[in-house]
């Protein structure tokens, strides 16, 4: 398995993945320590509540989302962001079509399989 991405990743050349209904994911760079992922959400799409051992920082690049972290909910819009500690339950509901940029440390091996 490859342990790092190419240096340049052109969105138009990356095949999109569909991890759940209404979501399209593209991996925008990674190595063993870090991974950046762009996820497009249709209005109403759900990033189900889950947890993982990775640290996660997310930037709301577009749209509006209801974000839940450890039972607390906030409405976040373009320009906002959030942080998730390892092993903490979190999820999102897309209120207006949008894009999230997720950064994980270490990289998400499960996204490469």
List the helices and strands and how they pair.
Blueprint: E1 23-30, E2 35-41, E3 46-50, E4 55-69, E5 72-77, E6 81-84, E7 90-105
Antiparallel strand pairs: 1-2, 2-7, 3-7, 4-5, 4-6, 4-7
Description:
The protein is an all-beta fold. It has a domain at 33-100: Jelly Rolls, CATH 2.60.120. 0% of the residues lie in helices and 54% in strands. It contains no helices and seven strands. The protein has strands at 23-30, 35-41, 46-50, 55-69, 72-77, 81-84, 90-105. Strands 1, 2, 3, 4, 5, 6 and 7 form a seven-stranded antiparallel β-sheet that branches. A hairpin with a 2-residue loop joins strand 4 and strand 5. The chain is globular and about 35 Å long. The N and C termini lie close together (9 Å).
Concise account of the structure shown:
By secondary structure, the chain is an all-beta fold. 0% of the residues lie in helices and 54% in strands.
Shape: globular
Main beta sheet: strand number and arrangement?
A: 7 strands, antiparallel
Strand content: over 45%
- Helix/strand class: mainly beta
Helix content: under 10%
- The overall average pLDDT, rounded, is 96
Helices and strands, in order, run as EEEEEEE
Q: What is the tally of beta strands? A: 7
Low-confidence stretches: none
Number of helical stretches of at least 4 residues:
0
Query: Could you give me the name of the CATH homologous superfamily of one domain?
Result: Jelly Rolls
Q: Give the second-level CATH assignment, the architecture of one domain.
A: Sandwich
CATH class of one domain: Mainly Beta
CATH topology of one domain: Jelly Rolls
Distance between the termini: 9 Å
Radius of gyration: 13 Å
């Amino acid at each position: 398995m490859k342990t790092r991405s190419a240096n340049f990743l052109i969105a138009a050349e990356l095949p999109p993945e569909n991890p759940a209904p209404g979501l399209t994911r593209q991996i925008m760079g990674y190595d063993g320590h870090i991974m950046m992922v762009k996820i497009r959400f249709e209005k109403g799409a759900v990033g189900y509540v889950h947890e993982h051992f990775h640290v996660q920082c997310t930037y709301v690049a577009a749209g509006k989302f209801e974000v839940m972290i450890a039972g607390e909910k906030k409405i976040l819009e373009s320009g906002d962001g959030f942080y998730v500690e390892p092993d903490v339950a979190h999820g999102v509901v897309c209120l207006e079509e949008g894009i999230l940029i997720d950064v994980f440390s270490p990289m998400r091996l499960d996204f490469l399989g």
